Amino acid sequence: MPTRLNGLETLHGADLLPYRVRHRRSIGYGRISAYRLNPYFLCSESDLPESLLNYRLKLGTYAGIPLFVHWSFSLAVIYVSLQVMHAGPQQMLFSIAQLFGVFLCVTLHEYGHAMAARMYGISTADITLLPIGGVARLKKMPRIPWQEFIVAIAGPAVNIVIAILLAITLAILVDPALLRAIGTYAMVLQEPMTDETRDMLLDLFNQPSWTGYGVLLLIVNLVLVAFNMIPAFPMDGGRVFRAVLAMSINYRTATRIASRVGVVIAVLMGFFAIQSDPPLLFPLFIAAFIAYSGLGEARQVDLMESVSGLTVGQVMLRDTSAFSMDLNISELQRRWQSIPLTSVPVVSIAGTVVGVLSLRDLTTQIESGVDPSTTAGEMVDHRKSFGPVRAEQALQEAIAQVGKHHRQIPVVDESGALVGTLDLDTMIQRSAIQISSDAPANNDPATTHFDQRS
Description:
The chain is α/β, with parallel strands linked by helices. It has two domains: about 10-305, no CATH class; about 310-435, CBS-domain, CATH 3.10.580.10. It is built from 17 helices and 13 strands. It has helices at about 50-55, 75-85, 90-120, 145-175, 175-185, 195-205, 210-230, 235-245, 250-275, 280-305, 310-315, 330-335, 360-365, 375-380, 395-400, 425-435, 445-454, and strands at about 10-15, 20, 25-30, 55-60, 65-70, 125-130, 135-140, 325, 345, 355-360, 390, 410, 420-425. The strands form four sheets. Strands 1-7-6-5-4 form a five-stranded mixed sheet. Strands 8-9-10 form a three-stranded mixed sheet. β9 (about 345) and β10 (about 355-360) form a beta hairpin. α9 packs antiparallel against α10 (about 280-305). It is found in: Cell membrane.
């Protein structure tokens, strides 16, 4: 299904898996794919929540991309097991194998996005499997429309290839009568479903067999493609729609149009989900997700476009307040009383920035009864700290790199010396001031007098 980043600009994918639900004699599927942008935070375009990053098991590195599975994936295995427990251990193992097969398709879908992005010099930090699907974290998104089109469509293209290979294999190996029954079930053949056809399908889907396994994966991949290509931004289909629009209009306007179309589709989806009897909670969740994340990304694009062409140095606070890494808690308490910042750089004896200490972290340490002799350097959490950024660095690039735990980031010059602070909360206002100052000067004496004083 990116924003604060841990060095990443966009999170492509949150592909909700196509899942199989057994209710006696019925089979259901559902799935969504999208790039997810966190809503309107003045940060980089996408990182996973810390709870996802901290509780993952690495499955290996494939094609140079680390593959992780989140601990909550075990919940999906438990759920599937409980659903078919009454059918015996053989059926349980078969259903779990089906689940793994579905997730293999989702993983390949994410690798499709990642490999397409690699063609344009964009690397992927990792891919994470969740109970609801997969997430590929790209370090940035291509801004050239046709490149975004290729990256967005690459995931569904992988599912099309898988479906074609499965269809060819089934056509060669499966009894023609069973193929006709499958065609009837898939509504490809406009024939009434006879009792014999229904019995064949029930045996196919409810009894462990390679044919049933292949047919399930075929249906899953077709559903992945069909649902994923709905033009509901920020799903893959919505991104394709945005890329096509951006070929003839500017990127910001294209994003706004795509996000609004996505909201309309999400509202319709939510309406039908509520009108169902009983109401369908999962499609309702998907609809809310599409609307929320689509509008969030549109606002994120507005932000990034509004600071285009500016550098960090042009909008930073020219405040060089810093704490020496050997200051203890008592000294930190005293000195912070005269500093208006909520996050302060911690520097070494040589003057280099070694991290950032937030007021919240300090108060947490004090409340926990930490040793009063603990120093600023010892309290810096390097997993949460990020920075510094360079004064000459493009502001868009800096926003795409900042961490999610600090709103104020140290700024250094070419020599590494601290020269200011990038305040994310006042950055937009400061960028507006900078743009205004770049406009042709007028002859208003009051204005001239102010500029001279500054």
